[in-house]
Amino acid sequence: MTNKNREHKIAVLVPCYNEELTIADVIHDFKSHLPAADVYVYDNNSSDDTYNASVRSGAIVRKEKNQGKGNVVRRMFSDIEADIYILVDGDGTYDASVAQRLIDELCSGPYDMVNVARVAENSDAYRSGHEWGNKLLTGLVRRIFGAATTDMLSGYKAFSRRYAKSFPALSTGFEIETELVVHALDLRLPQSEITAPYRERPTGSASKLRTYSDGLRILRLIGFLVKEERPLAFFSIVAGILAMLSLLIGASVIIEFMETGLVPRLPTAVLATGIMVSALLSLSSGFILDTVTRGRREAKRLAYLRYPAP
Q1: What's the pTM value of the predicted model, to 2 decimals?
Q2: Which residue has the higher pLDDT, 229 or 217?
Q3: Mean pLDDT, the chain, whole residue set
Q4: What is the 3-state secondary structure (H, E, C) of the chain?
Q5: Spatial distance between the Cα atoms of 34 and 149, rounded to a whole number of angstroms
Q6: Is the pLDDT confidence value at 119 over 90?
């Protein structure tokens, strides 16, 4: 236990759904490597013995009735008071011995978020489709919001108090990992990344992540966040598409008018005009919402600044 750990109150947050086979080992590992930390397990309507296994292992155990990892993380950040938060899945795939290095990295910046990029110990650690899907989604977020992490969907992260208490947590499911990263990028919070081994799940333990449906939910969230956090860019693209469509539809009408001075296809002309008006309205909406977003960003920044650095 380092001097830094004595100075900071550390909370290990473990959202859980049907992790009876692994949760006891996860709790024991983190208690062993971070004896000064409080380990919190939030049971998310498990149908197995996750709750009792967590109690027997000495964790602080609570229940969250709203289904979904995003709902659990929102509740954890709201309920738990700490200086440093370590968020980790309860499936036993993450290495607890990395936790101290994670804390040291967070304090060294100081940083507000440190992500653990996974290095698979063998080819069975990732389910089919998960690895390329993670790379695709991470690359998309890096291109839109900026580069900060190479493994956005990792479930092993550390946060400062000021991050946790300024994070709005709007997601309900596994897309919470994307929202966590975009929040830091949007407010330009200092963040870092370390690498650590990623183990395969033990026999009998199944992943709760659904490759295609959860991937689509993450894509939908990215689109939503672009609209919410980059409204001028989003609505400018919409305006550009509508303007091009209007010109394509109305080009023949304009050419015919220039040649004959007549507009024989009035419905086409009205349609093209309506689409162009929609393009102008979209662009105007982008400018207005960009001002609103700036105000929201300032409010989140002020909430963030209420707390000291770790």
Answers
A1: 0.82
A2: 229
A3: 87
A4: CCHHHHHCCEEEEEEECCCCCCHHHHHHHHHHHCCCCEEEEEECCCCCCHHHHHHHCCCEEEECCCCCHHHHHHHHHHHCCCCEEEECCCCCCECHHHHHHHHHHHHHCCCCEEEEEEEECCCCCCCCCHHHHHHHHHHHHHHHHCCCCCCCCCCCEEEEHHHHHHCCCCCCCCCHHHHHHHHHHHCCCCEEEEEEEECCCCCCCCCCCCHHHHHHHHHHHHHHHHHHHCHHHHHHHHHHHHHHHHHHHHHHHHHHHHHHCCCCCHHHHHHHHHHHHHHHHHHHHHHHHHHHHHHHHHHHHHHHCCCCCC
A5: 25
A6: no
Q: Please check whether residue 201 is in contact with residue 91, taking contact to mean a CB–CB distance below 8 angstroms.
A: yes
Burial of 247 (0-12, 13-18, 19+ CB in 10 A): middle
Q: Which amino acid is at 259?
A: E
Rounded Cα gap, residues 162 and 167, in angstroms: 9
**Residue 69 main-chain phi, psi, to 5 deg:** -60, -35
- Rounded CA-CA distance 70/212 in Å is 18
Q: What is the C-alpha to C-alpha distance for residues 15 and 42, in angstroms, rounded to an integer?
A: 5
Phi, psi of 261 (to 5 degrees): 75, 10
CB 234 within 8 A of CB 227: yes
Q: Say which residues have a Cβ less than 8 Å from residue 134's Cβ, sequence separation at least 6.
A: 151, 152, 153
> Buried (b) or exposed (e) across 52-61, using 16+ Cβ within 10 A?
ebbeebebeb
Q: Express each pLDDT in 168-219 by its tens digit.
A: 888 888 889 889 999 999 899 999 999 998 887 676 556 666 666 767 878 8
